[in-house]
């Protein structure tokens, strides 16, 4: 911004609202307000009047994301509020002891739509009766392209932004590079040109030269963009080359790419785009514009970490958590740091078809947490198990495989979940098998 101010601790209140000429100035101003203590925010009318002008210019979407700090947070982007999570060092060469899965392997991703519709409508049926769901909030998603696929199927009026969450730094690199391309592209045609995979199978030198040329074009467009805050530009300046070399060499077989057929590359002849026809967002103008609006607003971020560790989002309302098939490997023990009850979506079966199921997350009480740990310890000891995940999945998961299209896909809990349903099943199992209860 053009005017500098002292530290918030020395101010008597927020600075006057300036006359914005660029989107970047508006974003920086409203995020500067986040530094102010609650008592300083008393000029709601002045802010609101200026926001009306911003809305006319279609600068960025406004979201009320906290009742307590509504006046401040209404104008905050995810990338600024959670800069300590998303604008961090990313080592694309780091080992995470898990496959990349940068290519989507869950076919027909439109299977997630009925679950998103339940959230948008605010109600769903469970074994206990009709349950209510929060309709507006953040969506948390694990994975690479599936992060963008979910946005294609989400209602932008209800989804306040997307938070990618994955243990693999290469997934973050892939997502962040794609987010940048969405932000700087003039239209979907330019996005296609900027995001196209660089081939040259027989000439590594030509491939490297082509990637470097693409990087130069992208870097220039980023520097000339008024939509991107300087703090975000600094992040990309540091990582652009690593991110580009990773992203631009991915085959992305899920994409329908007419130019690919003329290249006659045998290794890429097994394109599976027919299984992803519902989310060809580079060809569908409505989907592209929806993704681009979210990316430009700064409300599409990617973070590194486990899907269970979401306490950093405790000030925000999370309505959906898409965990893919993580429960096949790790216990779902989602911690939000609050009492929210988002819909947790999980998948079963890679390839075709992939089944999408869901359940409502309900935090356990401290006493239930302790009891859950005691039962896990007792079962592991009695059966000589090193890992409880596969046992819980085998014994206690609801039927989620090859469901009939007309069968209820909600209220289905994968076995390895810290929840009351699995707690009750463990109690029954321990009692029926006379397993002694061990103390913690």
Describe the structure.
With 440 residues, the protein is of the alpha/beta class. It folds into 3 domains: 8-76, no CATH class; 85-359, no CATH class; 364-432, no CATH class. Helix content is 39%, strand content 10%. The strands form 2 sheets. The chain has a 6-stranded mixed sheet. Strands 1-2 form a two-stranded antiparallel ribbon. Helix 8 packs antiparallel against helix 9, helix 8 packs across helix 13 (285-296) and helix 10 packs antiparallel against helix 11. It starts with 22 loop residues before the first helix and ends in an 8-residue tail after the last helix. Residues 1-18, 34-42, 55-75 and 262-269 have low confidence and may be disordered.
């Amino acid at each position: 911004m053009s005017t500098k101010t002292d530290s918030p601790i020395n101010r008597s209140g927020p600075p006057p609202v300036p006359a914005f000429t660029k989107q970047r100035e508006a974003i920086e101003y409203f995020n500067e307000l986040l530094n102010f203590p609650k008592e300083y925010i008393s000029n709601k009318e002045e802010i609101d009047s200026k926001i009306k002008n911003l809305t006319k210019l279609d600068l960025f979407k406004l979201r009320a994301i906290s009742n307590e700090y509504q006046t401040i947070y209404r104008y905050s982007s995810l990338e600024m509020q959670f800069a300590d999570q998303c604008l961090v060092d990313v080592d694309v060469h780091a080992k995470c002891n898990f496959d990349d899965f940068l290519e989507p392997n869950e076919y027909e991703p439109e299977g997630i739509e009925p679950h998103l519709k339940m959230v948008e409508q605010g109600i769903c049926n469970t074994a206990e009766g009709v349950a209510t769901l929060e309709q507006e909030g953040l969506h948390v998603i694990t994975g690479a392209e599936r992060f963008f696929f979910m946005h294609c199927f989400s209602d932008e009026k209800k989804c306040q932004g997307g938070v990618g969450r994955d243990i693999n730094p290469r997934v973050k690199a892939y997502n962040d590079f794609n987010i940048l391309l969405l932000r700087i592209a003039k239209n979907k045609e330019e996005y296609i040109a900027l995001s196209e995979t660089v081939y040259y199978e027989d000439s590594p030198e030509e491939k490297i030269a082509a990637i470097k040329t693409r990087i130069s074009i992208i870097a220039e467009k980023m520097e000339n963009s008024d939509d991107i805050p300087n703090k975000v530009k600094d992040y990309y300046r540091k990582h652009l080359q690593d991110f580009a070399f990773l992203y631009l060499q991915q085959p992305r077989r899920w994409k329908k790419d007419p130019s690919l057929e003329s290249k006659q590359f045998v290794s890429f002849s097994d394109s599976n785009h027919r299984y992803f026809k519902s989310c060809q967002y580079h060809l569908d103008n409505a989907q592209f514009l929806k993704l681009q609006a979210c990316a430009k607003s700064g409300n599409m971020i990617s973070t590194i970490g486990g899907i269970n560790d979401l306490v950093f989002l405790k000030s925000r309302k999370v309505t959906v958590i898409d965990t893919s098939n993580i429960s096949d490997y790790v216990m779902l023990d989602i911690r939000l740091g609050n009492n929210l009850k988002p819909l947790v979506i999980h998948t079963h079966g890679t390839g075709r078809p992939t089944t999408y199921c869901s359940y409502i997350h309900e935090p356990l009480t401290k006493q239930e947490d302790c009891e859950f740990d005691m039962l896990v310890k007792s079962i592991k000891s009695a059966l000589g198990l090193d890992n409880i995940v596969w046992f819980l999945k085998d014994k206690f998961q609801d039927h989620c495989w090859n469901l009939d299209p007309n069968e209820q896909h909600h209220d289905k809990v994968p076995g390895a979940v810290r929840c009351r349903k699995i707690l009750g099943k463990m109690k029954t199992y321990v009692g029926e098998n006379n397993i002694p209860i061990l103390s913690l």
